[in-house]
Structure formats: structure tokens, C-alpha cells
Amino acid sequence: MAAAAPTSLSLLPSSSSSSSARRNVATAAAVSSPSPSWRGLALKASPIRRLGFSAAAADPLLALQVAGRVREVAGAAGRGPRGVVSMAKKSVGDLTEADLKGKKVFVRADLNVPLDENQNITDDTRIRAAIPTIKHLTGKGAKVILSSHLGRPKGVTPKFSLSPLVARLSELLGFKIVKADDCIGPEVEKLVASLPEGGVLLLENVRFYKEEEKNDPEFAKKLASLAELYVNDAFGTAHRAHASTEGVTKFLKPSVAGFLLQKVENEFAPLLQTELDYLVGAVSSPKRPFAAIVGGSKVSSKIGVIESLLETVDILLLGGGMIFTFYKAQGLSVGSSLVEEDKLDLATSLIAKAKAKGVSLLLPSDVVIADKFAPDANSQIVPSSAIPDGWMGLDIGPDSVKAFSDALETTQTVIWNGPMGVFEFDKFAVGTEAIAKKLAELSGKGVTTIIGGGDSVAAVEKVGVADVMSHISTGGGASLELLEGKELPGVLALDEAVPVAA
Predict the structure, then answer these.
(1) Does 265 reside within a domain?
(2) Annotation says 298 is catalytic
(3) Residue 248 and residue 307 in one domain
(4) Per the structure, how many domains does the chain have?
(5) Which CATH number goes with the domain that contains 440?
(6) Catalytic annotation, pick one of 250, 298, 353, 402
(7) 454 tagged catalytic
(8) pLDDT per residue over 123-133, tens digit each?
(9) What is the pTM of this model?
(10) Are 74 and 53 part of one and the same domain?
(11) CB distance 396 to 404 below 8 Å
């Protein structure tokens, strides 16, 4: 079914806006009701349309102001200043061969990879991300004691054993690693004692012990007794104060951060970049214009992220199930779409905050709706203001994909967290996959593209464009908390870096 004319839900001031509102040239303004003045706008082609500023295209004065704002943000050369953020924690890269040769190093990695019913790894992203740190250590003669969790076991649970990871780790490292049947105890100590320089011993799932998540000091001491140094390369669990992420640092010195070898500006650069460098750097000193794409099912799970990003972004694109809470807050009918009734006021306040901060907040103008939540549901494309009763929105529509893509075309930094729809169902994965492909295209043009963990990572992996992104975060909850500006216990526990003059 062809889409009807999209409603103008770019949330920008209309021609009737006050002059003070117009000064917020890239502003999100609340639409209180679906009035005829914007319902059927016939938008002409305009350079401003490339930015997704549909209301600006219909208002010449606002168009000039938007263009001025873009020049102000981008600078005369079309891009903002490039900021560099240095990690404040000591890194494994700071340790010399003399520090490492022959030393037993406890490495907390995040090897929490998905397995199918036959215990086969279905996505090895996190394993691959851990390899640079391990190779760096073994290359300098360290004896690596590798620790991780897998899943959420309640006691010893065979299906959550790390045994299925041994073959892939060995393949990526280029030599056979040893696997222990426990993570503490006499048998583990014997294996540690027999470990050669440059060897790797993989401990069993640390969460087989309830003391791990309780950050029990005695358990942490037993883990620490296996080694002489500590490296935390598990960004995905850095937001948890567990025995293997925070407790062991009280017994092992130095305690340093691991690193990930990343592609920077689409070239393989000899730089050791961390999750902290990318995620903190993206928020504190991005190349501009800076856009964030936030999706997911619920506003409540992304409140902190949205509020934090509104302090720094120029453009904020919203997708996923959360958009229907925003629609309902503006008086639109959403059918049987997911809505958080207790967050309607919050949605309104976030729109107001975007307006006050001069941020262009863009919502989809059309959506793909379904008659049930199922992969084989009947579907159609409708304007966001015309969702019929009994139907639910499960993806953004083609007009929204184009508007979002046009807005992203103007950027120099993009961070993405959360899918645009129910991408687990192929029929409703089009919007998410289109955004993934657009970011891949932008990466090829030198734009910094950061995939902020969770389902967004799964999406770019599914489309096959993960390798071209500037950075793929291995953290789910940790990525969110860092973007929210929260402190991460696993990072705070590490040794401070020696200050270096900029």
C-alpha cells in the first residue's frame, strides 16, 4: 500500500511560531494537536529538505535561520573542530615488556556471546574485540589468565560453560589455549603454575559463584591470588561492581584498562582506542554537526541517554516503540501501539527541553503498522497521524527513512543506540537496516559512526556493515550508563593514568 502524504512531525516551529521560538533555529517544538496547518503540507525541493527540516522548507525566514545555524555548527569548511579526549585511566599499552614478561596477568574480558541450541557461537563480536589485548600481553611474554561470564547462571549451569569458546579463541589467537573447569581452587592454581610465557588459561564462568555478583571480598581475593597484575577489558560489565571487575583491583597492582584496536576515519590506524575514548569523546567533543539516533521500545529505558544527549547533539532522531508515547503526548491516535501512559508528560518535557537547547528533534512522519505482533502480520504504511484502531506501529516508514537519511547526510559524528522497529521480524526490519546502511555509507565519507551497544550492534552485524563503522561498542548497559554521564565502577577502580600535556 502506498504511503499517504506524511504528517510534518519534524517538530520544528511553524510559520505561526513566535520570533523567540524561531531563534532556536534547529529546534524541537511540541505539536499540541494535529492541526490542518501542518497536516497536508506540500513541501517543495529545497537545500533545507536535505536536513529533514520540513517546516523550515515551508517557512523562508526559518529556512534562512536553519541554514545559518548549520553554517555556525559546521564552520566555514563544512565541519566542526575535531576534539580529542584522552583516557584518564592507565592502559595496558602503558606497560612495558619488562612489566609483563613472565608475569601472571588476570584479564577480565567480556566473552558473553550468544550461543544457539547446539552451543555454537552465533556472534563472535565480543571475542574478536578481546583479541588485541590478549595478543598484546602474550606477545610481551605475559601469562594470561582469562576470565569472563556467560549468561545469567544460577550456580553451576552446564549450558553457560565457557567451553564452547575455546576453539574460536584458539583460532583467533593462532595457538591453543587451555581451559580450566573452575575459576578458583587447587586445580586452577596447578594450571596457572604450569602456564608458559605467552600462554592463555581460560577460567570457567565466574558467575557460577554467587559471590561474583555480590562482589564478595574473599572471592575477589581468591581470584586475585592467581595473578600479579590486572587488566579490565570487559567494558560490557564495567557498570557493575563485581568481584572480577572491581573487587580484584584491591589486591592486584597495577590494575589497568585493556584496549581495542579500532579503525579510525576508515583507515587501519596504529592507534589503541578504548570504549571510553569513543563514547566519552563523542559526547564531550564531537566533530559537528553531531547527531544521535535513539530507538528501542520504551522511553523509560532511554530517559537518561536522551537527556544527556540533548546537552550536546545538534540533531536527535527517535525511532522504535518509544515514538508512540511521543505521538500520544501530542494528541495523536496510536491505535494499539506500545505506549507508556505514565511517561506522556516526560515525552512532552523532552520535546520542550530539545526546543530550549536548540536541538532538532525528529520523529518519523510515517510508520509501518501491523494488525498483530507477529512476523506474518498484515501490514501497511500510514502517516504517523493516521494509525487506525486495532493496528500497531512496528517500524518507521519509507518517508521517515528518507528524512532521517537526509538529516544524517549533514553530520560529521553519529551515535546510534536502539533499533527503529521490531527488526527481529524481517517484515519490520526495513527501517533499522536502512539506517545501518546509511551509517555505513557515511563511514565511507569520513563521518565518525559509533554503534552504542545492544540491538544496534546486532542490526549492523545482520546487515553485514559492522566492519566499516568507526566503533562498535561491546557494552549494552555500560554504553547506556556512560552516555548518561554515569560513573562506571569497573573503570573507577583502575589506576589513574599519568597526566600528559595536551
Answers:
(1) no
(2) yes
(3) no
(4) 2
(5) 3.40.50.1260
(6) 298
(7) yes
(8) 888 898 889 88
(9) 0.59
(10) yes
(11) yes
